[in-house]
Structure formats: C-alpha cells, structure tokens
Amino acid sequence: MTANVLHLPSGALWRNRLGLLLESTGEGVFGIDLAGDCVFINPAGARMLGYAAGEVMGRNMHALTHHSHPDGSPYADSDCPIFNAFRNGLPCRVDTEVFWRRDGSAFAVEYSSHPIVEAEQVHGAVITFIDITDRKRAADELQRAHDELERRVAARTGELSQALAQLRELSAYSEQVREEERTRIAREVHDELGSLLVALKMDVNWLHKRLGEQAARTPEAADGMRTQMRCKCQNMSRLIENAVDNVGRIITDLRPSILDHQGLWAALEWQAQEFAQSAELALDWRMDVPPALHLPEPAAIAVFRIFQEMLSNVGRHARASAIDIAIGLQDGQLHLCVRDDGVGATRQALEAPTAYGVMGMRERARQLGGQLRITSEPGAGSCLQLWVPLP
C-alpha cells in the first residue's frame, strides 16, 4: 500500500484510543467514509465549524463545510483533495482554501487528509485542520508592508536619480558659468589693461628716446622738449589711474573687498545700491540687523552669493521698475526678502530642470541648513525669501 497512510487497529481499542486523541488535541479532526459522510469529529473541530459534534455526524462534510471556493464559486467534490485522499490513496496538505461555518462565514484553513486503511482496504479518510485566519492576515499585512516598502523604495530611487541628474546638470552649469566668467575677465584684462599697458610702454619708449636726444638740443629746444615730456608724464599718470581702476573693478567682481573689510551687512547694502543704480530701479531698502551679529565666513559668503543671484534674476527676467529689499531677524533666523514689481513667472518655469540659478540658490540654502522660498505669479512680480538659522 502507498506510504503515509493510516493503518489503525479495529474494534473498541481503536475507538477508545482515537476518542482520547480527539478530545486532547486543539486541532479540528474529523473522519469520513467512502461516501464523504462524517463518522467522527472532535469537539475542537465542531466548534470551529459552528456545530455541536452530534449535529455533524452522518452528514456529507464536503457539502457541509467545503462546498465553495474562497471567492464563493462552487467547489465540486470531484476536485476536492480531501476526497482524493481515499480515492487515490494519497495524503495531501492544503493551506490555500477555506472551510465554511454554520453561519455562512468562511475562514482560512490549513488541512491534511490521510486515507484510513484497514486490512489493506481504504475505508475513508482522517482530516485534521486549523484556522489560519490570523496567520493569513499577518502574511497579508506583511505582503502589503513589503509592497508599500517596494513602492517607497522605487519612488525614493526615482527621486534620488532625478536629484542626481539635476545635480550633474547644476554642476555642468556651474562649470559653464565659471568658464564664461574666466573668459570675461580674460577679455577685460586683454582689451582694457592690455591696451593701457601697451600705451604706457609706447610712452616710456618715447620718453627714453627723447631723453637721449636732450644733450644735442639747443637750450631753447631742450626747454620745449621738457614741456612735452611733462605732458607725456601727465598722460601716463592718467593711464596708470585707469589701469588701477580697472584692476579694482575686476577684483570687486571676483570678491568685493567690502565683504572682508566691513562685513556682510555693508556688502549687501553696497550690492543693492550698485544694482539699483546700474539697472535704473527704484530701491526700497530696509535692514534691521544688530551690528554685533556676525555670520561665519562661509555662511556670509553663501548669503552674499545668494543675494547676488536674486538680484541677477531680477535684472535678467523681471523687467521691473522697482525693487523692495528687507533684511532682518525672525524666530531666530536671518530673513532676507527681495520683491520686485516685474512680469513674474509661472511655477513651471521656476521648477524647470534648466532653472539653474534657482537650483543653485536652493542648494546653497540647503548647505546653510536654511531654505529658499519663491512666490511668483505672471504679471504680479516675484518675491524671493531666504531663511537661514543663526548659529
């Protein structure tokens, strides 16, 4: 006979031992004959099905408790693994189905069916079952948690990939800006300082040549030449002054000396006044910061560069006639606000992947532990606010 089947003794001894086993176990256990009718059931099994033990005896167990699939569709007894246990003489174990209670409710069940063999003949089957509703619920919750975690990981991975792509674009844009700045400075040095130095060199050569000829001149001619040389020296002095001014302007463009000598607050005011004058904008300037308040140098430079970019955005895009700048302290933070009356911008434009200026300001603000807020509507101007926690 096939292995894993039950070979039980016959008679009263078998029934007594089986009765003790059925009473002691917490699992549901019932037996069926070849017709599928119940020949015994323990109290635990009857309770799980919602019956008294006597109400189940003699009834077809498939029709009573295994008649439908979990979705409610009919379950033919010809497909039932419990019946196949004695039809084919093969045990089975199933944990994907349900048993139905007396009140019409169903519960997830794990059951095993083993053929009953006596005298080499199959007489029915013994079925053990347990309610695995809690286990299924825990498994479903675990699966939902796993699915949610996968969804979050996928979303976060997408966000990180997007942020990495934006960071790469911002880095490339920053390098482009630096290269353009180097080109501009090189052009200014070549075109302005270079031409001044060439003119000075020519004047020096002229002086050198005329001085060598002085000894051969008559006193009257020598005196007239000295007058020309004095004029030439005055012209050279003006060229030198222009060169000094150009050098100072280039240095200021690279890093305003006022930031080092007078601090951040003076540098912000100077930058605002310079911008308003060059852009021909009406300026409303308000600053209420304690003079003794000083930011660390890296933070001061970052705030100054963000402020420069704010003004640069106004100059490039706003087409404004007036600008309102307010700097102060609020809730233990430095608050810097730049508001204009220009054409404004849409949210899509401010959030565009190519809005490198905005991206750069936000990145600097994050490095300071602060944040940048931008509010703008087409035709209603823009307001850029920087919040930086004070040390």
Determine the N-to-C terminus distance: 85 Å
Largest sheet, in brief, is: 6 strands, mixed
DSSP summary: helix tally: 12
How many strands appear in the DSSP assignment? 11
H/E element sequence: EHEEHHHHEEEHHHHEHEEHHEE
C-alpha geometry:
rod-shaped
Description:
The structure is a single chain. Helices cover 54% and strands 21% of the residues. It has helices spanning 11-24, 43-49, 53-56, 61-65, 81-87, 133-213, 219-254, 257-261, 264-279, 297-318, 347-350, 356-367; strands at 6-7, 28-33, 38-41, 92-100, 106-118, 121-131, 282-288, 322-330, 333-340, 371-376, 382-389. Strand 5 (106-118) and strand 6 (121-131) form a beta hairpin. The protein starts with 5 loop residues before the first strand and ends with a strand.
Keywords:
alpha+beta; 6-stranded mixed beta sheet; 391 residues; disordered N terminus
SSE order and pairing:
Blueprint: E1 6-7, H1 11-24, E2 28-33, E3 38-41, H2 43-49, H3 53-56, H4 61-65, H5 81-87, E4 92-100, E5 106-118, E6 121-131, H6 133-213, H7 219-254, H8 257-261, H9 264-279, E7 282-288, H10 297-318, E8 322-330, E9 333-340, H11 347-350, H12 356-367, E10 371-376, E11 382-389
Parallel strand pairs: 1-5, 7-8
Antiparallel strand pairs: 2-3, 2-6, 4-5, 5-6, 8-9, 9-11, 10-11
